[in-house]
Amino acid sequence: MMTITLTDLNSAGRDEFVAALGNIFEHSPWIAEQVAMGRPFAGVTQLFSAMKGAIERAPVELRLALIKAHPDLADKAQRAAGLTAESDSEQTSVGLDRLSDAEYEAFERFNNAYRSKFGFPYIVCARRHTRDSILRDFERRLPNDPAAETQRSLEEICRIAALRLDQLVAADDRLPVHGRLSTHVLDTHSGMPAAGIAVELIELADLGASRVVARTTTNSDGRTDQPLIGGRPVPSGKYELTFGVGVYFAMRGVAQSDPPFLDRIPLRFSVSEPEGHLHVPLLVTPWSYATYRGS
Amino acid sequence: MMTITLTDLNSAGRDEFVAALGNIFEHSPWIAEQVAMGRPFAGVTQLFSAMKGAIERAPVELRLALIKAHPDLADKAQRAAGLTAESDSEQTSVGLDRLSDAEYEAFERFNNAYRSKFGFPYIVCARRHTRDSILRDFERRLPNDPAAETQRSLEEICRIAALRLDQLVAADDRLPVHGRLSTHVLDTHSGMPAAGIAVELIELADLGASRVVARTTTNSDGRTDQPLIGGRPVPSGKYELTFGVGVYFAMRGVAQSDPPFLDRIPLRFSVSEPEGHLHVPLLVTPWSYATYRGS
Amino acid sequence: MMTITLTDLNSAGRDEFVAALGNIFEHSPWIAEQVAMGRPFAGVTQLFSAMKGAIERAPVELRLALIKAHPDLADKAQRAAGLTAESDSEQTSVGLDRLSDAEYEAFERFNNAYRSKFGFPYIVCARRHTRDSILRDFERRLPNDPAAETQRSLEEICRIAALRLDQLVAADDRLPVHGRLSTHVLDTHSGMPAAGIAVELIELADLGASRVVARTTTNSDGRTDQPLIGGRPVPSGKYELTFGVGVYFAMRGVAQSDPPFLDRIPLRFSVSEPEGHLHVPLLVTPWSYATYRGS
Amino acid sequence: MMTITLTDLNSAGRDEFVAALGNIFEHSPWIAEQVAMGRPFAGVTQLFSAMKGAIERAPVELRLALIKAHPDLADKAQRAAGLTAESDSEQTSVGLDRLSDAEYEAFERFNNAYRSKFGFPYIVCARRHTRDSILRDFERRLPNDPAAETQRSLEEICRIAALRLDQLVAADDRLPVHGRLSTHVLDTHSGMPAAGIAVELIELADLGASRVVARTTTNSDGRTDQPLIGGRPVPSGKYELTFGVGVYFAMRGVAQSDPPFLDRIPLRFSVSEPEGHLHVPLLVTPWSYATYRGS
């Protein structure tokens, strides 16, 4: 994805500025138009704050139009007709382009139920979610009243916009839109960080298939060189993190039973704060292990 | 299954004695015949010892005949033709009556490879195994030389016999043929045993489907009223033990994230000593847990 | 100490019965006299229940006399003049016969303050306490009003009596006056119970010197042959339990740093339920350990 | 202590250079003289390497003179006569200026035994030790042969010199002479770092009195703002780290027993690598805790 510097945005002509930011809010360049006068912005935080201010000051009808400018989630017909590049990428990130026919139909039913109750599409910031957590979110929000859902939709729209802005604009400051999921393996049999442990992170799915999110190996510090998930929100949902400790201890010549009592250790946990820093370490011997939510 | 007391066996007529014990060793009543004279036996241990002695003293050809008297494992044709009640029950215990066609064919290939190399059927004490561990055992034994496999077959036959004898004869002493798998949940958030935790034990399978072995709930002592597996060998293999801690803490009103960080905790481990006592406890808070191989 | 069977008590003459039980309640044989008619008792529980009933039915003055029949705790003059054998043994159990002059004076001040406020001696069931917890109990009770302290004194008197009765009378049933403190060491480096670990239990004291309560070695099951404290209440107070793990791992040839990272591991904890079963296990490798309040 | 930059040392006159570094090796300015020609040095590492090279190239007699230029450890007469500022500071760091008469005599006996065997003083880099570990080191080295002790003395002298150089010279690079001891408290009852926990680090002594090395409180990240020991070697020896968890949980309103099962938790461990990074964390609930050697 192309990025643009905040400096360039500050010095650009008005039309150029609006063109660059016109789709930060889906099909709603009026927001960029409104804030163009406020330049120069000291940081992307200030820019984003101005854009949110424009929405808050906008008349009700315009806010509603903003909501209605969004596509349905996982709608086949809309996908065929073409989404904005941003929407397409967001829906793809959560696998909404790879649904089975049955899953497409489920989403269609949900979208229709929501739209027929509220008169506007169900909007959620897909990058903060797994498919399961979207369905859970949907089920929680459907009973809301229209005022609550209007407000909630605008919040989700701002989350979507913040992530789009974060990807597009390079500045000295950053919007607080990134989470992190990390691990660490300590071999308490030898009292050392466990290097060379195969680690796999799987996103578990009630709906559709589970999928591998990261597959890596611990380094000499017992950590992974990169966070398992980083530089983006950690999608809400269930995960399984597995550690190949049987092979690790075998390679080190440590006595184990045959087959080893512990081979691939699974840790299952849920993520509930996509912007949080979640650390899930493993303390392990061939005969015992422990884990905890660290930070 | 009918049982008979050791006292009755000691006082029975010779024919009656042989009839009762004739199939402790598959299709080989000569072993019971040989030991009938040794009565009375002080215990089932002494009885079994006498039967093993009869085998050790038997000429080579008779020992080989004993081996050949056993059916192939998981052989469709032999099943159709009829197994002894004992063999049928043993093969059923490990699910060899419920194989897919592909699995039957795999076993057939194994049996044929083994029989063509050694001239006698592959014998293993099925009650001490899962299907996966049988295949693993098979692969390890196939490269052996005939002398080693003859010896090994007799050992497996004695294990089979010991289990049959244990089930058939009621005595004051017991043969050491039973293992035990148990668990215990300690809630280290409240410092109390965790009562009412849903526990499920699954036998994991590389070959065929995993299956639930036990499904229970912890009692006020944090234990299960019965061992997860007891009164029989704990089959070698891989297991997953799951604990429904999310619901447990929710019922107690303990603050958790939404969804709970930990919901159903899986512990995966292997059993390698079917007659051993394996204790796999869980120490748990809503944010951490530990397990270890206890005793 | 002499014991007498409940059967003998049931069949004894009235005077003999009263003589045997006359000092279960300090200097108050009238309680035994009152219950003698209620014989035979089915168990010691029923006997004790009858004795408590006699106190409850007694007029206020008699109950007050029962309270006043007790000696001061740790009073030098009274010790010199002679305590009942029971009181002497109870005070000795908690070390009240081995106080420094300063400590005697502290107890004297406490006793006087209490007696001048309430008009009767401060009574506590010494066998359920350490010296520190007695002082703590004293400080908590001094602000009470006379009615509350009268009631509380009778409760303590019944606790004293229950322990005396438990020691004196042999019956099929037992009064629930015993607690237990136990430990277990699991070597999670080898996945086995840790045998041969030197274990020491120290009662920690703010007042006076700490003292060793038990010194033992773990058996092949990683436990101690006898509970660290058993067959009596576990006195309220602070304890330190130490485990000689450095020597243990050295004897097994396990690689450690020099000097070993862990040598004698101390666990410090408090006991608050003298009749409870407290289990304080240790899970240990040369580089890590964990403990928890078990049951 | 005054520091001088490497830049200034590189550009200083020869005499000034020698004056500045003359006592890096005790009373042995000839080493600085020899390396003065090698300037400029790219870093303090290169400078120190040159100084060690000068020693290696020096004739045997000069190396022996270097050894003999060192004072006895904890020698009263020598202290009275005056040590170099560096020696004084080093001996003071480990408490050798505060010994009891009995301890002084013990050191005198050791020094004399060593000197009468080898003909030169016992030298050890005091900043890397506690008093206990010095005595242990002494006992291990006394049986050595003279060649081994000559070599070992030069190694200790180089360690002393490296620490003196590190303190004196400011450069972009650093000599690897610093260790670190740190901790971290994770409250696994709430799943959060434990803030506000009182932490105390005590150096345990067999010889003389134990002493508090650090006393601090955990910050919002569950860590201490500064390492417990940092910016210097972590002296070899035994330590006790205590954590005031009883007060912490009480302040948070968490249900505990009365008195709390866990109040001040002690962790006892030994340091064996003064230049290593040792992390000793605590995972804790009111009813359980765990620790391990981390990194």
TrEMBL record, chains A, B, C, D:
It catalyses: 5-hydroxyisourate + H2O = 5-hydroxy-2-oxo-4-ureido-2,5-dihydro-1H-imidazole-5-carboxylate + H(+); 5-hydroxy-2-oxo-4-ureido-2,5-dihydro-1H-imidazole-5-carboxylate + H(+) = (S)-allantoin + CO2. Pathway: Purine metabolism; urate degradation; (S)-allantoin from urate: step 3/3. This is 2-oxo-4-hydroxy-4-carboxy-5-ureidoimidazoline decarboxylase. It comes from Bradyrhizobium jicamae. CDD domains: TLP_HIUase (cd05822). The gene is uraD. NCBIfam families: hdxy_isourate, UHCUDC. GO terms for molecular function: 2-oxo-4-hydroxy-4-carboxy-5-ureidoimidazoline decarboxylase activity. Residues 10-166 form the Oxo-4-hydroxy-4-carboxy-5-ureidoimidazoline decarboxylase domain.
